[in-house]
Input
Amino acid sequence: MIRVVDVIATGVREVIKEERSLDQVTSFWLKQNKGWSKEEKGFFAETLAEVIRWWRLLNELKFASEINYGSEYHSAVINYIALNYDSSVAHGIITSGLQKKIKAAYNNLNTTNAIKESIPDWLQELGSKELGESWGLEIQALNKAPEIILRVNKLKSNRDELLNWFKREKFNAEPMDLPDAIRIIERTNIYRSEAFTLGMFEQQDHSSQMVAPFLDVTPGMRVIDACAGNGGKTLHLASIMANKGRIIAMDTAEWKLTELRHRARRAGASIVEAKVIESSKTIKRLKDSADRLLLDVPCSGLGVLRRNPDSKWKLTAERIDELRRIQEDILNRYWIMVKPKGKMVYATCSILPSENELQVKRFIEKYNGQFVLEEEQKISTAQSGFDGFYMARIRREF
Output
């Protein structure tokens, strides 16, 4: 495991110092070490993600324990292993005496809430300001590793068939309360499944699976997904619409739409047309054309910190201010695409009111009766155990 620990430390440096994405770093090093056992691969991926998640706390512990392994990145990995793995794993890497010393230093650590929850000071201040006492519970929940949750692609399969398929392939899975949702009970590489190659499912969190049904679509409608990204919700809409009607999936980034087209082909979502937003003219040409409009806007992503722990070390207060301006701009420019009497959903994976209900309130007030808020949902990670999300369904009156 010593070799694996060295690679983890390198990965931590690449994420923290070089600001590479955790997903990219994990994928790169797993490809570089195909000879690792299944256990070594799992140890690498899990430990790397958790060291990134707890980076600030582990770095603080380095000073408290007075133990230095040559680099702050290596020290953080050693500290995490000492605190979170039992002796059968840890003692192949560190001595029992060192493990006891690190645990004692942790138990005696006197920290601020920001260090305890391993977040920047500015984020602690912002979360407390916007959410008050509930922020503490939210950030605790957002520091837990996420489950693997899948969405059945009903264009290719159904839940019972997919569960039976997984049973044959020895994947441990179970149905959830949402009609298309499946939980993978034991962490595994689900992309090895032939069912994935055949387009029978997509990985999509429980909260994210609630957005497309919230748009209130039916087969035959003309739908625009205006911030489609690589298409997770686009494909869900196509499944709900039974491949009948038309979905225009739009984004400003061509590379995201390239991935979306690939995913749509695998999923058999033939009603999806990908369109790059080249300028404001692209939006104006679609004026009054959509029965339904989805605005899954760029946001801080604070609701999905569980699966993107590296983002809290890249995000800044200034970037969130910029994102709020982008959200407001999208609402004010993109709404023209929905028909009178049509509906649109504004959605984020943030838990901040300033990105969510306050944006919607300001938008509706600005247009003085032209829009009506039909319903909104706020999904709390602390209360649900799933990603933090917000969605508001708005009806255009005229």
